[in-house]
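SUBJECT: A protein chain and its fold
Encoding: whole-number codes for local backbone shapes
RECORD BEGINS BELOW THIS LINE
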Amino acid sequence: MAAIVARAANGGLRGRQETSRGSLVRRRRDYAVVVAVVTGAGAPPPQEGALERPAWSGETPVSRLVGALIAFKPLYALMKLASREVIIRTAEKANIPWREMTKKVLESDVYEVFERIRDPNLVYPDYYLSPFHAYDEGNLSWLAAAEAEAATLSIAKRAIPEATSIEEANQIVRGNWMNAIEEHHLKYSGHRQINDILDIGCSVGVSTRYLADRFPSAKAVGLDLSPYFLAVAAQKEEKMSRQHPIRWVHANGEETGLSPDLFDVVSLAYVCHECPARAIHGLVKEAFRLLRPGGTIALTDNSVRKSQQCSLLSFQERKDSNLTPFLHSLLLAAKIQSTSGTITSVVHIDEEH
């Protein structure tokens, strides 16, 4: 694990912080520490400085070519089917029982859980209603929810190709993330115990369960925009035994409706790369509002350089969602550069106002 620490006090981040797009975000605290951790096994130390813009971002020849190909809908439909089949076969070759896991979810009582957990009055942001990850309904579908955990395991193996098993890859990715949060909180929180955790964009609860397992005395909340994902998360959690069962909340991470100063740790795991800039700004602003003095915000996401290795279909998804510029801006704010693995930024907010 390699880390880079940047301290900002008094002048730089005091009272406000300028984002890479020039807007200003109010800060509630005077002092911040940013830790960036690369969770790839054997990855080189991150380097300070400006990030290199990925070759497939913006209006590049490759991006224009992909746009022209995708514009022909019959060809796009074939590409989507072929891409899905490749992804599933690749996962199953890595001993991830993709089809079996999907079938188990779809044949469970998850539909009853859905009715209990869904907020029928929730208004979805426009970007969330677009096709995404080769699903026509994006994250608002049962197939996306049923395949999410298998896809998550597959991504971990791709991030750590040298791992000998899925379990080892997952332990490296998630274990290093947990270590970064725990070590940073212990160092900078004034020895405050972690009692309450919020996992924004929790999907089907993989990251939330890791947080709950690592901090068993804490009360964990998983929050997501997709009631389908939350139903899968809640249905699986019902079979587990915990001191504090995880609470699942169907809400927008930009406006959660939760009370301020409520959590010791706020996590966004593999969320920001799927969001437009305005949503990222809203998510971070809300995370700061919900954080207690002395708390920790943890963001973990794919390395920009690692993300360049993707299929033609992935190119288009990134182009459609304007993914790249916003992830680029997020990592640029932390001034780190990685060649592989996953990046975790841990932000501590001092109790001073």
Remarks:
- The longest helix spans residues 166-188.
- The chain has a mean pLDDT of 75.
- The beta strands are 2-9, 16-18, 24-26, 31-38, 196-200, 219-224, 247-250, 263-269, 291-302, 342-349.
- The chain has one domain: 62-322+345-349.
